[in-house]
Amino acid sequence: AMVRVYATPRLDLSTSTLSGCDTSDIVINIDKSYNALTLSKCYFEMYPEYVFVDDTNPATIMKNFPLSAYMSGPHTFTTFNREFPSCMHEDSFYVNIQQPYPSEQIGTVTLDPGTNKWAIIWRRTTGVGTQTCKIFQYDSITGDRLVGEVPYSSNVGYFVDPYSSALIPPKPYRIQLTDICGHISNLSVEHKPMFLKQEPDTIVGYNGLTLKFTPYIGFTYNWYYIHHNKSRSAIGLLSSIIDSVPSYDSMYVIANPKLGHYYAVSVRLPSPLMLVTQLKAESGPYTQSLSNIVEYKGPLFSKTNSTLISDVYPNPFSEDLMVDYVL
Fold this sequence. Notes:
By secondary structure, the chain is mainly beta. The chain has 2 helices and 22 strands. The chain has helices spanning about 35-40, 280-285; strands at about 20, 40-45, 50-55, 75-80, 90-95, 105-110, 115-120, 130-140, 145-150, 160, 175-180, 195-200, 210-215, 225-230, 240-245, 250-255, 260-275, 285-290, 295, 300-305, 310-315, 320-325. A 5-stranded mixed sheet has the order 1-5-4-2-3. A hairpin with a 4-residue loop joins β20 and β21 (about 310-315). It is rod-shaped, with a radius of gyration of 32 Å.
């Protein structure tokens, strides 16, 4: 008996280029040990982007190769013999066209107590070709302003805005990635931390304090947590929480506040934020966003003469004071 063996052409993956910065970088070679006559006796299909090569002319078949690809992911290239379609061969391979990682998001913006500035924290996604992360502060009038850029090779996902100050109301922050090919991602969802103001009671002589705060923007939460401590460095601890109010509220009244003590407000993150780092001290977990810290310096007092009625607070004051007056 005579046995006929049909040579089934296949790819030469050893000389193919399956990864790159752009689709033009992808080169999928056919094995050139098969001559044009052999190739024209077959037809070829490549998935998932449907490429179909069906050329019976030995003079033109080679013009169909090499092939390219337009999307990342697993691919298959199948060769079918025209005379005997059951005689086939399938090559499997993976194409990687570099794209900026689309899902990097800020985890939280919170007070950095050591600098009294705003810290932007996010969990880095490694292994996706990211080179740098830009941090922007957003203004509805002037747009996005670049406040910093950090390398992914060394930064753990913690950045303190050097231009910020927790003494003034903050603006929203957004981040943007640049990958190793120079591709730039879309801007992330904005996050804006809370801002806390203290107002002494308007009844002169009454020792009361009202805390007013703006909402956190960037994730949902159910409660605000009120912090109080005589030590500024300890104000962010969970042990400093004295009460909570629903998220639809925006103020909290403290009767008989303590002179020289500190107050702040926090919200809980939807889930603990762990940073990708080998140093445990840097990894977290981060569980809350803390507002700016205010110090209670004394009650309201009033001074009246024939031409000026004024309210001054705090009393006594050391660094600054506020004056409300009626002429």
